[in-house]
Structure formats: C-alpha cells, structure tokens
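check this one:
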Amino acid sequence: MFRFLFKWGFILSLVASIPFFAWVWWLNGQVVERFEGQKWQVPSEVYSAPIILSSGAPWKKQDLESLLEETGYRFGRNSQKVGWAARSQTKVSAHLRSYVDHLGFHESERRIFSFENGRLVIQALNGDEISEARIEPQRIGYLYGGNTESRQILTYNEIPKPLIDILVAVEDQEFYHHWGISLTGIARAVVVNFTQGSRRQGGSTLTQQLVKNMYLSSERTYTRKLTEVVMSLLLEYHYSKEAIITAYMNEVYLAQLGSSALHGFAAASQHFFGRPLNELNIDEFALLVGMVKGPSLYNPERSPNRAKARRNTVLAVLKEQGRLSDKDYNSLIKQPIRLASKQKERSVYGDYLDLVAMQLSRDFDEATLATKNLRIYTGVDIRAQRAASAAMQRQVAALGRRDAKLKGLQGAMVVTDRITGQVRAIVGSSDQYYTGFNRALGAVRPIGSLVKPPLYMSALATGRYTWWSKIEDKRLRFKVGGQIWEPENYDRKTHGVMHLYEAMAKSYNLATVSLAEQIGFDRVGDTLRQLGVKRSFTMHPAMALGALELSPFEVSRLYQPIASQGKSSELGVVLAVMDQNDRLMKRFDQQNDVPFTDALLAVTLDGMTKTPKIGTARAAQAAFPDLNFAAKTGTTNQQKDSWFVGITGDYSSTVWLGDDNNVPLSITGSSGAQKVWIDFTKNVNPRSLPTSLPNGAARYDVLNEEFEMAASRCSDKTSLAFILGTEPKDSSSCFWPF
C-alpha cells in the first residue's frame, strides 16, 4: 500500500510541477533575452566641439577660470589629478581630460596658462610653449524622440572601485557570497511584515533590486516577490558578479527630472556634480549611494539637509565596517554638498538641437536616435552659444525698457566659424527659455541692406568696377508691374557722386540701385543664387534694396563664401555620428563649391571693413577700436526688421530683430541688431580679420580725388583692396613744387 501511494504521489507531484517548471523556463528566457540583448533604450547624446585654446589668442585670466569651472574642473592646491585645476595671481594650470571623438583618442594633458598683454600663452610642465590645448567636448543634450530616460552606460572597468565598495557595504554586504537572494534578509523581512500585518520590508539583495528594476513592476505582492526570487537565482546562475554589478550601476533609478527619469550613477554624477563619475570624492559617492534608498526623499537639489544627513549615515556605515578612519569620517561629514550650477540645457541649446535633429532625420530614423545611445558630435562652441543667448536676452530686454512698444520684440542669431562654416551657435528666440519656435530657421523676412555686399560684389566681378569707382546717389524712377517705384535713402536725401566703398558703407539706397541698373538686375540675382540662395525669387529693382526674403540661417549661408574668402560655402552642423562603442557610423563632410575666385571674395570682404570705419556700424568700431572686422547693417521698409552681419577673425554672425506680427519698429539695424552683436562679441575674445589677401588680390593706398596710387606722404588717400589688373596704373608722389 505504501509503495502504491508513494508511486502515485510521486507521479502526481511531477504532473503538478510541470506548470511550475514551464513558468521557470519562461522566466529563464526572459532573463537571458533582456540581459544579453539591448538592456536599455538610451537616447542619443549630442556633444559640442572641443574647446580649442590657442597661444596668442586674446584671453583674460578670469574668463579661462570661469570656462574651466563651467566644464566641471575643480580648483584646488594643484592640478596633478585629471579634472583638477589650480591658480596663482598670474597663471592657471589644468589637467585636461582625455576624450574620444570621430578624430580618434585624445590623451589627457597637463598645461600651464599665462597671460601676457591680454594674450594667452600655453606651456607644458617643462616650460615648452604649446600652440594649443583642448578642453573635451561637452554634452549639450539628448535627442529623445519620445524617450523619457536619461542614462550613461559604463563598463565594469569604468566604474570606480570605491563606489562599488560603498554600494555593497550599504545595500548588500553579502553580495559576493550569495546566489542572488539572502535567506537571512528574507527571514528578517518575513518577521517584520508578519508583526506589522503588512509588507513593510523586502530584504532585497542588489541582484533582486536589479531584477525588480529591469524586469518587474513595483507592486508589493507575494507573487511578484516569488517571481523576483526565481529571476534573481536565474540571473546569478547565468552571469558573473561583475556583469550584475555593472548592470545595477547603469540601471538604478536616482531622480526624476521633469518628464525624464535619471538612471545610473554616471548620469547622476554629471547631473548633480557636473563631472565624470571617476572624478568624485568619497563623500560624493556616499551621497549618490544614499539616494538609492529614496531618490525623491534624498534628492540634494530638493532636500539638501535630508540628503546630507543620509550621506553622513552612509559614511557612518563605512566607519563602522572599518572602511573609513575616524579622522577621515570626521572630515568628510563636515563637507558641504557642492552641486553643479544648473543651466537648463534645453533653454541654451534647444535651438541648436532642433538643427541637429533636422540634419540627422535624413540619415537616421527616430527610433534609432531615441534608443541606440549614439554619440553625435557637432560644431557648436559652448562659449559662443552661451554668449549669443545671453546677448540676445540682455539687449532685447534693454530695448524693451527703453521703448514700451518693443515689449514684444523677438530675435534670432546664427554664428558660424568664419573659415569652415561650422555653425558655432544658433539662437531662435529672445526668450529666456526654449520656446519650440526657432526663428533662426523659421522667420523668413526681407533682408534689407544685407543684399548690398553681394550686389557690389557683382559689380566688382565684371572687372569694370573697383571700390574706388564712382557712382552718383541720385533720384531714380522705375516702372514695375505697371506702377512707378521711386526708391529713397533712409534720410530722404541725395548725396551726389561718391566712391563705391562709401556708398556701401553708408548704405545709400539710390547709389546702390543705380549700380544694380548699370550692371543688370539679373546679374545681381545670379550672384545671390551662386552665393547659396536656394529659395526661389524673381529679380526686380526692389530686390536690389533687400525685398528678398530669407531666414537668418539662409543669410548666414549667403555670407559664408565671402567671410571665408572661398574656403567654405555650406553651413555645417553635425560633424560625425558614433555608436556607443565609439565606432564611426557616419561622417558629414561639407560640400564647398564656390563659383567665385578667392580674390573677388577677399576684395568684397575687405570693402565691408569700411562699414565700421566710416559707415553705419561705427558704434561697433567704437566698442572695439583695435579690432579689424567687416560688417553690414540692414533695415527694411517701415523699420519692420533690424539686421546686422559682423565678421571677425573667428566668427561670421547674423543677427535679426523683429516682431512676430511684422509691425513697424522704432529701431534700425544700427540701433537694434548691432547692439546684440556688440554684446556677443565682447564675451568671445574677438580676433581681427587677417590683413593678408589671397593670390590675385592686393591692397593699395589710392588718392581720393584721382585714380592714382598714393605715396606715403599723401594725406588725402584711402587703403583699398583690388583684384589684380584693376588697380591704378599711375602713381602720385604728392610733391608739389612752389
């Protein structure tokens, strides 16, 4: 009888256990599939260009110190450790971080910076002068595409050992000895929950916490707890402790940032401290580990006192376990919590991220950008971007205080690298925070007098005109579409005969339209298209005064061939895309097809340097008396738009101000947009345009009254650039016998 009962009992037990084993088998598949596949959907990270510090560039000591602090460098007694800087009364030293980008691996380097007569001098520790130093690219934001997680993925070797030790000491002291669950912890939790009459304590190991975060919901039921236990055992069966702790470090939830959840210690380090995880101190590790118990409760931004108390509790645990000496403990608990200054990334870089997303949408689908943790390297210059955003906000606010009718004034700004055409900064609004409407791309408005430099270049290209050539500023009448059009100067006056450089510098409309008529309006239209205007337009006389409608971005592209003297024509945004393993996926190379000679473009640019000296940009020259730069102001009919283009040795910048409702304003290009450019330029250490000209062009001193080269003793003269072959053939000694 016993054998009969045992036999059938055993058979029935096997039959009854089939669903359980099937369930375990299914759980095993879930564990392996998620852990060995793509564990996380991590949005693509967007990075700035490296910040290049060049010997000889204009720099102030306090500006470099501010830049190092903004990029997460800590100042201390010395700069021996990577990520640290030091300063004396006259010098700054910094141990610059290594980094990887699409150009390869860049080693960390320790450099000494001094400042001689306002110029930067860079030296190695042995005293050798260095031509340049680089601060690593900064992450400026993410391309979410609907993703709501912020995370940076680390490998095991990238996790600081002290952080692992602190986490294990506080959260799971038996981590290296159990098989995924702690029987003593479970027993303790059962006793507490039984005595309290509800589930108050979980007894979870780090492995169980990882399973709960990666695979399960947060519901508190015994069924879910059983699932957690089984999956923890399976996870420990398949994978090493190193793999599990690495996954935990990347998965753990640590804060809610608006609609985005902050996961992983690396992302938390950047968010709270503004530095890489491997540069944190013990007390900072303790703060982050303390947050694991209650991310909202111990958030140092919201509850600094509570977070500090929790940090000190963690430090006390380390002292009790012999991991901290009494001396170190007493020192660390006195440390204040030093969080990174918070700047809303999306408010400063939101307009630039729009541009990045627009370019990448042609090559990558939204799901890839939102989940594959790509590294996107751009040309944005963080100093230029912050300076442009701040200048726009300050100056528009100041104009609004001066005139109540300007309270609704808006603006946009595009800053490009003068040589390469890379977009260094873009501002789409005068508002403090990112608005979602990027006027640098979307505000298509008449460009006014910004059309004049390309128009004058059309005349120079014929070979019949030079900057010295004369034109009469007189009243004109044109029949357009059956109606009579009579252009006017801004001051409603005529100014007689003058040189071309004077007419452009002073932005005289009548002289400009007269010149366009002489060379042919269609020729001007062809030049605009060859310079990069892709928008369809029909050329007519009013176009010569800027009836052409373009966005600020399109204006920047129009001026890029002139600013670069033929070295670039298209504007660049994204430099390259790499995957999360630093493999190059795509490089973006600009097409630079400029159908004009370098000499013509350089002579045009040189002519634009007269505008700050004698023309409508004299306020900018007064602000920078020693700076050689090119400029052009622009104002449209009824003063509805205020424009300014400024070109220095480093940047070509386009500024637009206007009202979204297209109403008349009380400002011109000189009294509005120019102020924004001056403010911006004061904060980016401007360098002068080079005085050298390319082959095929030369600069000569020419008499104002006669088309003759002037000797050094001549007083009534001006310096002008010429395309070779168009310069004066005669010369004057200015020596008059009595």
Notes: The chain has a mean pLDDT of 87. The CA atoms of residues 200 and 409 lie 57 Å apart. The first helix runs from residue 2 to 36.
